[in-house]
Design the sequence.
């Protein structure tokens, strides 16, 4: 997916771009509001990540201006307390907000929720072999069979399907998938992989176990 | 608020007293003046008559064959009798000898005899008398003989008249005073009415309403109103400045934290050795802990402030619960936790922002302390004279810990494991419930593991 | 009457005794014991003769039987002297000499008294709540019709003067009037008349030429007219005339219409009064008797306001007021008496 990040802190912006790249997203960065306007004029974005404290103006003004002529969903990055009259972002037209610092899993969850509400994104489907997964709806088509996946199964499948043929260790899978406060062990990964295999049963992609290394998705 | 204001005196009372004091002064003054005038008038009348009387007698003085002769004219005394019933004394002294009359009536010596009428007030035969005197010089036995005519009258009537007038004047003055005092009281009340009205306008305001007063005021009060508006302005400016400051500070702190956390996540993906991964996880956890604590502390402070000055608005609880659930649904989804709601349409009087926050904290716990693939149920229903929001999860349970303990500040349960938290969530929820006259209760779920948290709010 | 006369002691001895007690001259003295006889006593002094005044006292005692009343008759001048100079102890002074009564009050020898009765008095009938009038008595001319045979009765002083002037032989030595040097009332009448009527001095002169007979008191004058010694008595107290005139004798009482001299009989409570409270009771009694409408007792003296008299006379009574002091002034008195004597006592 393609996002626009409006954030004046260069370091943070750079790390967000890198981090989201790991999940296969393309992120354009605008350090100020006018730059953001420029980007918005030439490219279609699935979603905007907007920091409200910017050097050339309050993100709120941008938000209300933006809402009057565009429909691109916006998630606000805020440092504010929850208990404040001045949050008001939702009223101004933001689709959601998340407080800094944030967990990327949560951010993704929120992004998906927003996009789902808004009726999808440009490329929310990935196909591998005869399997197509809809990352927003959480549905999987295996040959002619439709399967609904649980969120964690979906996240795991996304990792495999984006990296076909690549060996992924259990630790890597853990890191990529879960919120770090979740008490999940590598054993849990085995449980989820087993479930995924059952879901993919009958399709051409399959998850192989590479002894001592991890797992790998191959297409037959 | 009023109770904490130390009052000293009352404008109304002071105004009334001052006006009444002025009225009293005026009453006293007018009494004195009327008295003085009446006394003077009475005395003047008596003097005029006495003067006429002595003059009439003096006119009759003549010398005949070397002798001073005199026939007191009837009119000289009848005129005295015409206006009052005063006793009359007279004395005619010729050359130091009493010609006729009351020879003990004290009159001035010959040397001081004046041709004009002179008056004197003196005591004679135990009574205060007013005496008129006039001098004449006659030629008898070829020499000038000074003759003095004195007529005196008691002053009982003068005193009686002025006493009567003074009594009447006193009565009038007292009546005037009573009337004026009444009017003063009324005037004070009426002129203070705009102030009272203004005080009521201020009192009716919500605690966070800092908009300027649009009411019109009499121009004496206008400066007060203007000052009040300026004060409100300053207050709201300084409030928003401090809010801005807090926001700015939070921004400054949280942005680098976000950078650290993001880079730690990236590093976590990059490193392969388990011990390195563990380090990165600790870094991330530390960042989460500190940012959670900072956020909850700030929230708690804001909550305390708002509960001290509780705004009570009509709150639709269905909307409120729905909004909170929507806000947390993505978080729940991450763990494949399903949130089920069962909401009856209910409203309470209260502060929506506080209630939202309380509920968010409770729901956050339910999600946080529940395993993946579980269910959280939220029921909103009426219980007695209030609304009850019950949030039940299938999580690890509170392990026998009681509500009172868990709602203590910074108190975290023994069951938390490595779930990030600050121990303030339930404190906030509890304080909010209490501020609304309600309560917060934690109890183990009836079936299986899990916890049920109940937030009860009375309708009014 | 029975009781009154029983108690009247006309003995010379008693008069002498009273005279010994007081330097002033006592004419009569009467004692009206109350029941019981040792009850409180009121001492009255008055100009009215005992027999004229007795009914009033008896009437008073009907209301207040416990009060013993002691009444002394003296001339007004003697009453004045008694009270002013000798401080004689009397509870009431009742006199026909308004001027002297007024002077007593003016000089501070009278007590103030107010009651329902005194406040009801018209203002001209009281002075300073001290001198109260209870009768109004006109001066009249008493004529013996017998000796007036064939003459028209005079209606004014002018007519009287002409009448006397035209018939000197008939009236020589046969006209009586007050000796104003002796009689306080006579002096009062004369001075007031001199002040008010221009006929006075002419009349005096005519009377002088006719060898006028001078009297101290009205009673004697009337007696002499009745007996025929006099043809006419001038300036007699009408009330006395009414009293004295035997209805069978045919005395004529004439009120001159050009100017009527009306005397007010007054009462005052002397400063020396022993029992001012009871004296007040007697004052009220007198005032009630003076009120023609209310009084039910025997009418001996004319009332203060005679409804019958009011419309016939344009002249008010002699005013109670300090003006009365004028003729008491020594210089004035001397001058007046000189003039009067010159007129009346012609050689
Ligand atoms: N639904 C629940 N299931 C089990 N334990 C709970 C639940 N809710 C609260 N607790 C226990 O009560 C304690 C206090 O909760 P509270 O929300 O105040 O703090 P916290 O969740 O630890 O921190 P935070 O302030 O970040 O919410 C928790 O630490 C936990 O032990
Ligand atoms: Mg909590």
Sequence:
């Amino acid at each position: 997916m393609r996002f626009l990040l409006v954030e004046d802190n260069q370091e943070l912006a750079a790390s967000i771009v890198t981090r989201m790249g790991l999940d296969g997203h393309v992120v354009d960065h605008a350090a100020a509001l006018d730059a953001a306007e420029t980007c918005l004029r030439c490219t279609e974005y699935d979603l905007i990540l907007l920091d409200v404290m910017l050097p050339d103006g309050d993100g709120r003004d941008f938000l209300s201006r933006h809402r009057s002529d565009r429909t691109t969903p916006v998630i606000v990055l805020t440092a504010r307390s929850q208990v404040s009259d001045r949050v008001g972002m939702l009223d101004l037209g933001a689709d959601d907000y998340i407080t800094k610092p944030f967990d990327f899993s949560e951010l993704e969850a929120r992004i998906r929720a927003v996009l789902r509400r808004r009726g999808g994104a440009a490329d929310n489907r990935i196909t591998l072999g005869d399997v197509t997964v809809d990352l927003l709806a959480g549905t999987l088509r295996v040959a002619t069979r439709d399967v609904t996946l649980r969120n964690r199964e979906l996240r795991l499948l996304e990792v495999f399907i984006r990296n076909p043929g690549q060996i992924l260790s259990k630790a890597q899978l853990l890191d990529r998938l879960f919120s770090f406060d979740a008490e999940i062990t590598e054993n849990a990964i085995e449980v989820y992989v087993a479930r995924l295999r059952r879901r993919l049963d009958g399709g051409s992609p399959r998850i192989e176990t590479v002894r001592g290394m991890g797992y790998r998705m191959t297409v037959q | 608020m009023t109770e904490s204001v130390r009052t000293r005196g009352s404008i109304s009372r002071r105004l009334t007293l001052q006006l009444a004091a002025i009225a009293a002064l005026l009453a006293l003054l007018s009494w004195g003046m009327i008295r003085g005038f009446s006394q003077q008038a009475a005395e003047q009348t008596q003097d005029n008559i006495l003067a006429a009387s002595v003059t009439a007698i003096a006119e009759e003085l003549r010398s005949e064959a070397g002798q001073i002769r005199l026939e007191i004219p009837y009119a000289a005394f009848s005129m005295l009798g015409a206006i009052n019933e005063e006793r009359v004394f007279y004395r005619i002294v010729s050359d130091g000898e009493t010609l006729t009359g009351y020879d003990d009536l004290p009159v001035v010596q010959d040397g001081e005899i004046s041709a004009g009428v002179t008056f004197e007030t003196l005591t004679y035969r135990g009574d205060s008398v007013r005496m008129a005197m006039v001098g004449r010089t006659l030629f008898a036995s070829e020499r000038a003989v000074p003759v003095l005519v004195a007529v005196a009258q008691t002053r009982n009537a003068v005193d009686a008249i002025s006493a009567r007038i003074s009594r009447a004047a006193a009565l009038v003055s007292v009546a005037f005073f009573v009337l004026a005092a009444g009017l003063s009281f009324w005037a004070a009340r009426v002129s203070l009415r705009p102030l009272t009205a203004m005080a009521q306008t201020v009192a009716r305001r919500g605690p966070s309403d800092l908009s300027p007063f649009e009411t019109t005021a009499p121009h004496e009060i206008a400066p007060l109103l203007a000052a009040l508006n300026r004060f409100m302005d300053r207050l709201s400016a300084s409030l928003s400045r401090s809010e801005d400051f807090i926001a700015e500070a939070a921004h400054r702190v949280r942005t680098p934290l976000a950078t650290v956390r993001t880079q730690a996540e990236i590093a976590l993906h990059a490193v392969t050795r388990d011990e390195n991964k563990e380090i990165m996880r600790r870094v991330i956890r530390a960042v989460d802990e500190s940012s959670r604590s900072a956020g909850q502390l700030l929230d708690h402070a804001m909550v305390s402030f708002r509960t001290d000055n509780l705004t009570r608005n009509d709150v639709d609880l269905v909307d409120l619960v729905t909004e909170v659930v929507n806000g947390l649904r993505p978080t729940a989804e991450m763990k494949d936790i399903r949130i089920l709601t069962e909401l009856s349409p209910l409203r309470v009087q209260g502060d929506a922002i506080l209630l939202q926050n309380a509920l968010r904290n409770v729901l956050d716990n339910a999600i946080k302390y529940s395993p993946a693939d579980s269910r959280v149920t939220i029921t909103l229903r009426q219980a007695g004279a209030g609304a009850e929001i019950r949030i039940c999860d299938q999580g690890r349970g509170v392990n026998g810990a009681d509500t009172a303990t868990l709602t203590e500040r910074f108190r975290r349960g023994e069951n938390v494991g490595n779930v990030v938290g600050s121990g303030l969530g339930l404190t906030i929820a509890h304080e909010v419930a209490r501020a609304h006259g309600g309560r917060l209760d934690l109890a183990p779920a009836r079936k299986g593991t899990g916890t049920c948290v109940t937030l009860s709010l009375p309708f009014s | 009457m029975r009781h009154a006369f029983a108690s009247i002691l006309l003995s010379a001895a008693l008069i002498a005794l009273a005279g010994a007690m007081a330097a002033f001259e006592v004419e009569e003295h009467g004692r009206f014991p109350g029941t019981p006889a040792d009850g409180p006593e009121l001492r009255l002094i008055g100009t009215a003769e005992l027999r004229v005044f007795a009914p009033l006292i008896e009437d008073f005692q009907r209301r207040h039987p416990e009060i013993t009343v002691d009444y002394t008759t003296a001339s007004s001048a003697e009453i004045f002297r008694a009270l002013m100079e000798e401080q004689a102890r009397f509870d009431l002074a009742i006199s026909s000499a308004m001027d002297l009564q007024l002077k007593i009050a003016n000089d501070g020898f009278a007590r103030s008294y107010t009651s329902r009765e005194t406040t009801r008095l018209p203002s001209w009938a009281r002075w300073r709540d001290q001198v109260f009038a209870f009768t109004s008595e006109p001066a009249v001319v008493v004529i013996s019709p017998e000796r007036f045979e064939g003459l028209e009765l005079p209606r004014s002083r002018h007519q009287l003067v002409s009448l006397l002037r035209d018939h000197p032989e008939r009236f020589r030595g046969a006209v009586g009037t007050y000796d104003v040097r002796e009689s306080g009332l006579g002096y009062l009448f004369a001075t007031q008349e001199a002040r008010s009527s221009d006929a006075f001095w002419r009349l005096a002169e005519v009377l002088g030429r006719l060898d006028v007979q001078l009297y101290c008191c009205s009673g004697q004058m009337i007696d002499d007219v009745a007996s025929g010694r006099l043809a006419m008595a001038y300036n007699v107290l009408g009330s006395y005339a009414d009293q004295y005139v035997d209805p069978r004798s045919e005395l004529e009482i004439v009120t001159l219409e050009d100017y009527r001299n009306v005397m007010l009989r007054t009462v005052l409570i002397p400063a020396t009064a022993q029992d001012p409270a009871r004296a007040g009771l007697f004052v009220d009694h007198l005032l009630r008797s003076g009120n023609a409408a209310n009084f039910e007792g025997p009418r001996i003296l004319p009332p203060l306001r005679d409804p019958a008299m009011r419309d016939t006379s344009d002249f008010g009574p002699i005013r109670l007021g300090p003006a009365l002091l004028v003729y008491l002034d020594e210089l004035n008195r001397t001058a007046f008496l000189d003039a009067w004597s010159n007129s009346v006592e012609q050689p």
In short: Chain B has a mean pLDDT of 87. Residues B 292, 296, 361, 365-366, 369, 393, 395-398, 406, 411-413, 415-416, 421-427, 451 surround adenosine-5'-triphosphate (ligand 1) (CB under 6 Å). Chain B touches chain C at residues 69-78, 80-82, 85-89, 99-101, 125-127 (CB under 8 Å).
